[in-house]
């Protein structure tokens, strides 16, 4: 029984080898077709490497640090609790916490402000929106439409401008295109407050400038929002300080004028000295108020500096950028290999189909 099974295995192996040799001989007869199609594929691959525009990726990463958000001892206690495995949440909260910040980067308002960023290229001032439109061939199509021909994106049009609607519509299309194909913003590690921005486009300079400009726009918005209350408080104190200083200067001048009017005055006429005394009281009162306001203003400046978050760029895009450009040799090899493989697959499939028909 064992000998019979062994013989069957040998027969099966011989049959398999025979079939493989049969297929090999068949393909060998078709070598001219395989080589010809492989050469055509290599030529097509080479042509594709010339035609295809490479995509350039500008990568930028930065960290956000809120010096006033930890809450002193509370922040230390929360940090200690998290080390022991207790999930106490994020103490900073707000629109800039965790995944919220990546959505701020991808918001339409931030992207549109970035697109209006002015840049100098070849001695000419333009905007990132104009570069995008030109790079993607939109300008030629816009010039064919009388309503869109005179629309440019150097600066945002006034609310009463008739072209504002069309301008906003084009910006909306650019925004959707960027979000779908070009812009990636993510926080790779949830435990680390580092944001990564990847901008991918066929224009190397556009990728670099957009990534840097978007980081700056969001950073300015972030700083302005987080320190808004402290800045408002400082502005109010500075206005009050300037007002009291003006009052004090006026009171000092008034004392001098009153003293001049009572020079060599008869000591019996004390009523004439009343304006001078009143002015001196004003000087003392305004002086005391000014001293307190100056102290409060300096404290407000310290508070503003403490409440202003730190934006630290970790990695910025450096030219030349990484790209997915297909080399000429790779185009030849991949095209030839793909052409030969598809030809072999087609010949095998054709013969198998014919065997079923016959």
TrEMBL record:
The chain crosses the membrane at residues 31-51, 329-349. One of its GO terms (molecular function) is protein tyrosine kinase activity. GO terms for cellular component: plasma membrane. Residues 20-115 form the Polysaccharide chain length determinant N-terminal domain. The keyword Ribosomal protein does not apply. It comes from the Bacteria. InterPro entries: Bact_polysacc_biosynth/exp, LPS_length_determ_N. It is found in: Cell membrane. Its main location: membrane. It is a multi-pass membrane protein. This is Lipopolysaccharide biosynthesis protein.
């Amino acid at each position: 029984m064992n000998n019979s099974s062994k013989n069957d295995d040998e027969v099966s192996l011989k049959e398999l080898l025979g079939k493989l040799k049969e297929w090999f001989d068949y393909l060998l007869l078709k070598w001219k077709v395989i080589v010809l199609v492989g050469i055509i594929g290599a030529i097509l691959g080479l042509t594709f490497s010339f035609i295809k525009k490479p995509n350039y990726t500008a990568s930028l990463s930065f960290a956000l640090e809120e010096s006033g958000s930890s809450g002193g001892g509370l922040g230390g206690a929360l940090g200690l609790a998290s080390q022991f495995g207790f999930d106490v949440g994020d103490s900073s909260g707000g629109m800039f916490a965790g995944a919220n910040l990546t959505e701020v980067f991808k918001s339409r308002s931030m992207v549109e402000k970035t697109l209006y960023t002015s840049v100098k290229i070849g001695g000419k001032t333009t905007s990132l929106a104009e570069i995008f439109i030109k790079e993607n061939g939109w300008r030629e199509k816009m010039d064919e439409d009388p309503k869109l021909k005179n629309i440019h994106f150097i600066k945002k049009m006034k609310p009463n401008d008739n072209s504002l609607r069309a301008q906003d519509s084009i910006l909306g299309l650019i925004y959707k295109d960027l979000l779908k194909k070009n812009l990636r913003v993510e926080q790779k590690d949830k435990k680390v407050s580092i944001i990564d921005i990847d901008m991918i486009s066929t224009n190397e300079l556009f990728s670099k400038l957009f990534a840097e400009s978007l980081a700056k726009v969001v950073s300015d918005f972030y700083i302005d929002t987080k320190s808004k209350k402290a800045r408002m408080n400082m502005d109010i104190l500075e206005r009050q300080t300037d007002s009291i200083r003006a009052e004090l200067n006026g009171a000092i001048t008034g004392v001098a004028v009153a003293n001049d009017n009572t020079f060599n005055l008869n000591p019996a006429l004390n009523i004439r000295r009343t304006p001078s005394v009143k002015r001196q009281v004003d000087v003392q009162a305004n002086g005391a108020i000014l001293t307190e306001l100056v102290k409060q203003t300096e404290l407000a400046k310290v508070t503003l500096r403490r409440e202003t978050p730190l934006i630290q760029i970790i990695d910025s895009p450096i030219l030349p950028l990484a790209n997915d450009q297909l080399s000429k040799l790779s185009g030849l090899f991949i095209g030839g290999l793909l052409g030969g493989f598809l030809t072999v697959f087609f010949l095998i499939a054709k013969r198998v189909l014919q065997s079923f028909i016959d």
